[in-house]
Amino acid sequence: MEDNANRKKKLPLLIGLLVLGTGIWFAIWGIPGGSNLSSEELVSLTNRGLASVENIPNKLENDGTESIRIFTSVVREAPDAMLGVRNLAIAGILAVEKQHAKRDEAREKYNLTLELAKKALVSLRGKDPNSGIVDMLEAKLYVTLGDEVAAAKLFRAAYEKNPNDRMALMELFALLRNGQAEDRARVVREAAEVNPDNLIVLENVVRLQAESKDSDIVQTLNNAVDVLAPYKSLLADQKIDLASELPEFTEAIEAGDDSVWTKVKIRMIQVFNVVKQDFGYHTDMVQLQRHPLEYLVHEFPSDYFGGRGRLQAPVGIPVSYQAFTGLDNLQEIEDVLDAQITDFDLDRQLDIVVLQRGKLSILQNDTQAKQWQVTHSVDVSPGVSRVLAVDFDRDATTTTPESYVVSDFDFLLFGKSGLQIVENVLPKEEVKRTLVVSETAFANAGVTGVTNVQVADLENDGDLDVVLFGDQGLQLWKNHENWLFSNVTQEALPEAARAEGSHVLALADSNRSLQQDLYVSGGIFENIRHGRLQWNESSDALIGGAKHTALSVFDVDNNGSVDTVTATGSKIHLVLTGNEPGGKVWKQQSRDFSSESIKLQPLDYDNDGFRDLVLWGPKGIELARNTGGGMELQAISSLSGNVTNVDVDDVDDDGDLDLLVVENGKIVILSNEGGNANNWIKVRLCAEPDPMFKVQRCNVHGVGSRVDLRSALGYQSQQADGAVLHFGIGANTGAEAVRVLWTNGIPQNLLAPDSRLTFTEKQELLKGSCPYLYTWTGEKYEFLTDLLWAAPIGLQFGEGIKAPTRGWEYLLIPGEKLVPVNGQYRMQVTEELWEAAYFDHVELIAIDHPIDTEVFSNEKVGPPSVSGFHVHSFKRESLLAIPKIVASNGNDVTEVVSARDGNFTRLFDQRLKQGLVEEYYMELDLGDLSNPQSLQLVMTGWMFPTDTSINIALSQNEELNGPRPPFISMPRTNDSGETAWIEVVSNMGFPGGKTKTIVVDVPVDQFENDDFRLRISSSMELYWDEILLAVDAQDQGPLLQTTTLLSADLHYRGFSARLPRLNNGPERYVYDDVTSEMIWPPMAGEFTRFGDTTELVLAEDNKLVVLASGDEMTLVFRELPPVRAGWKRDFLIHSVGWDKDADLNTISGHRVEPLPFSGMQEYPPLDMGNVNTAEYKAYLEHYQTRELDTDQFWSLDEE
């Protein structure tokens, strides 16, 4: 090892060679501008470089060129600073990785980029040879190049240089775990010693130990019971019970039973075949590797710019806080324990809820008297000391000025005596609200000493769950609706003991996975979906292990990644983070500043677009102004007593944030004076758009939803907490875009809202259905229907209850809806919702039939007994209107369903949840049929479905059942002359999704006494356009012939404009009105590459075309010879495939894999052996190579 003196002599030479090398690079690809920059200009250039390099992995168009250009300039300007040298090396490595897949298309550029990356690493090694960082980075370069030996050698060198950093060893393990290298066994065992709780490490070490008959497996199996506890229910679905099985294995091993080794190996392979399909396995996988971006240097040393420290922060506008005048009556309220701002009666005037010992009161502002008056109060437990305003019951009683429906806030109280809920009740037909202590909620919870409570929809089922700290430790209580909660800590949060010693809680989406994670002192419980949380072993650096008194999680520096701020009573600790959407989170930098405050809350008090802090404690209250990542502290001199609580809102509605303070047991309201010199935008969320038709896919006030705003200031993000969200936008007069990401994953965009206003954002309804079919009708493409509706994968009917799937379908295309052009039939298959579509085979079949007949395919979803493929051919004259049809609500719907005219029935008055209504029926009087031999109902309609998350909520609700498919009943008369309706067909099937026609066989032998009445009953949300009766109408079969597929081309298109629903019909779409912006959160995994996909859909062979949101597959078929005289031609589209909704409760809904295949027994498939062939692997390598651009979505980028 060379000494420091020699290294310092060589360093200028290395830097010179680097600059010379990049000069050659830029002689070809562009000369970087700028020289002799000022300190401010250099920092600005660096920040541009950081923003650019951080986008290389996520933005498809960013190939690293711009990042290299910028950091070359930084190195030239500051050759002695680590920042430029290391960041240039990182930019080079990421650029090589990005360009590697298409290197043959731009070989010269790729070779020069690779050369530059290697030279940058040489320069970095000269500057920092001993930390191991350059070894880690260079190893990653060789991983990209496919040189496993060189990469392994460098990872080992990094670990030996810094053995306290286990990530080098984890990287080495990740590299070698699936190989045959001699070092594999050693590395697996080393990894298990330092990281035994990682799922991937556990999977590998237990298999290695079983194969080598290593007695250390006893300890591994004992540990596996705890590590795999979050997957208990998932494994139970496969009849695997580790809590009983693994102790039996260890007992047999200790007893010397040699036959048990093979059993252990096979069983653990089965276990991990189940677990590896889960989101939690993915989260552990990303923890094995450190992203190159984690090594970025974000700031120059504090003394770099001539001892001036950090550059001077921009000067903010002057803001002060002054006590509101004329509020003397508030001082009369004493011994206040807690106070919060809320809109108690939903009149959009802010009120105050006040908790005193044994009493909860509501204060409302009498604007005429200019006084706050107690308008409601109720006696409560003397053992509660804190209050949260939260809507648990979703009792939507109030309609907003925008004609949305909104629920009022109830109150969750907690303290030494445990939990208590006070309901905010507005009886029907009354205008006076009352406060009522719930006798049901948490009545026998057995929880005491509660010090902290947070609420969130942790399982994405639409209601709010409760997380708390109490004498019994950290607990998670699941909301079952109807004021019923259950303690699910053991099954949903089995590692709760990790939080022992913590007193702080926060809930936030740490990595943009659309899940609420749980923050405590020392780390994060990561939400791995389906209501389960798993300890993140690598998260301690994001928070720190100190004994915190307060914790807040929000985006401090507006980079889209949430940061953490903690208080200890002596200092405030700030950790700024970066992340890959849905993947790894890492610490970028941290800062401390002294403060004796013990509590804190974010707010943007000067409306400059950066959220500041209000801090408080026994010595008063202070503000910390956010300077774009740092904090400047200032005291609020008017308050210096014991401040026990602060809440934030715009009390006087003047556009800046005021403070509600509890000081020495009394209430003080401080007015923000000056903050509204800058502009603002407020966002109010409302998840229930229709008072009569409940959706209940999301809690009404959007608690936990993410709201993003982009303006000329840049990007901002906030997490909704039930209050109106307040965004400062500085001097700008509006925003470019605002987006809401609801807790069920649905995004909604609002373009260009003006400043100085509050707007209400309602939740749209449909997020997942099926791919759409557009056909050429002679002049344009028109929407026909949706495909693959009977083929959902990963859909759950309830917790652990998987929906059946049928991969094939035959859908009718009327001849006038598919007009040939230039000898071809053309159609478009689009994916426009939040899902992935998988097509294995697509076929177009012509149906030629006499012109006086009508043909129908059995476009039905239902059990195999009623949904088999059949083409019905009926004489047109035998298709009859039904004489009389009356609904259960008394409405005569005979005329509504007499013809197919786009006018649909609505047979129910209210929706219970999307897709679920109170059971209803249609009574059909078929008239005098004179002994028919066969009867069919030809029914055209559509259905609005539930989704997995709604199904999960229904399975937890004791008062509701899931939607029942339509069934047929017929009348029976008893001896007393009374009529009863007896079920004769338990499930007649239903039209799946958009408008389709089903043919229902009526059991004629079940009619009695010539009473030809029947009832069709259901609780599904079904709408009917036409119902005809076919009496002895079957005609001779039509002639079927298959057309030739000429081409299938996959490409990106975007999303069609939606037309509003008319006459109870489904949504319709305009093909020619399209937007190309990305709408939905990108699914992870690899989709089919764009281009020719003809061979993939020619035959049913498990080689799939996989479409992502926004994709389109153009299908072209050869025109057939003209139909014979007196005949008519219609068509069938026959497809084989599947559809996976990205609903947050869909099994494996987070990514496109695993790919389905014909013959699989379940999804996710546990055995891929029948498709895991060399031919299939070649298909994957050639076609399944496209990943989605995450940056375009998360940055609200419209390009």
- Helix/strand-derived class? alpha+beta
Query: Fraction of residues in helices?
Result: 10-25%
Distance from first to last alpha carbon: 51 Å
What overall form do the CA principal axes indicate? Answer: globular
Number of E-state strands: 65
As a whole number of angstroms, the C-alpha radius of gyration is: 33 Å
Number of helices: 21
Poorly predicted sequence stretches spanning 5 or more consecutive residues: 1-20, 24-35, 307-311
What fraction of residues sit in β-strands? 25-35%
Largest sheet: 9 strands, antiparallel
The average pLDDT score comes to 89
Protein described:
- This protein starts with a helix and ends in a 5-residue tail after the last helix.
- Residues 1-20, 24-35 and 307-311 have low confidence and may be disordered.
- The longest helix has 26 residues, at 4-29.
- Helices cover 21% and strands 33% of the residues.
- β49 and β50 form a beta hairpin.
- It is built from 21 helices and 65 strands.
- The protein is globular.
- α5 runs antiparallel to α6 (133-145) and α11 runs antiparallel to α13.
- Strands 47, 48, 49, 50, 51, 52, 53, 54 and 55 form a nine-stranded antiparallel sheet that branches.
- It is of the alpha+beta class and 1199 residues long.
What is the gist of this entry?
With 1199 residues, the protein is α+β, with helices and mostly antiparallel strands. 21% of the residues lie in helices and 33% in strands.
